[in-house]
Amino acid sequence: MFGLVTASLSELTKEEKHRYSSVYCGICRQIRQRSSRLSRLGLSYDMAFLALLLMSLYEPEEASGTRACGLHPIKPRPWVDNEYIRYAADMNVALAYHKAADDWQDDKSVAARLRGSVFSKSYPGIRSQYPRQCEAIETCITRLGELEGKNCENPDLVANCFGQLMGELLVYREDLWSPTLRQMGMALGRFIYLGDAVLDYRRDRRKKKYNPFLAQGNEENWELWQQYLVLAMARCTDAFERLPLVQDKKLLDNILYSGVWGRFRTKGNEEGQDGSV
Length: 277
Description:
The protein is mostly helical. The chain contains 13 helices and 2 strands; from the N terminus they run ααββααααααααααα. Strands 1-2 form a two-stranded antiparallel ribbon. Helix 8 (178-199) packs across helix 9. The longest helix has 25 residues, at 83-107. The protein is globular, with a radius of gyration of 18 Å.
């Protein structure tokens, strides 16, 4: 369900690419240190967005450096570290743990069970440190299972469920910016869930799996799907623009105004659509 909130690399400057890579590698480095080497297999660029957003909002002091690693043994890679990098690393592991558990529950996939075992040792400690966020993840996964099991025909119900999860993840601490971050997270979560449904429509139809647009009885309708996605992202960026962001603002703009649409443009072109979603 993740992998949508990424940058459009072709539109980034050399410096922005370096910054983006540094944040991503910083999260990867912290997952290895705080969880395990294998836990890095669940790393998602979506968490780089989470870290960049919070770093831009709170502007913490950063440590930085370069280092080769098992994944990149030849050329040292740049990294940055601060409390928001570490937070993003922990949330990545928590989400990957529940994603694997959900896949096991749905498909009884041996691969999912093995992935879950990779993250299971770290999750109790993460839950102890971030009970609000982890409770939101658990509640969302349970509620989604119930709605999907009933073949819920209302896309808003399932999308709002995931939106509530993202709202809690974007709130690192309760402060002046919490309401705006929750609004942004709600809209972003809706975009992610509905966007995933759009991209998986044909596969879900073929495998007879739940999809809110299939449950509605709709045929492929890119114009309708575009309305859902554009509205969700418009609400997300409205909240985003109300935050006092300066640091990395251009990189965040790239992600929300261009990068999130990349997979839809590709998908639309592959399937003979106009690619405007």
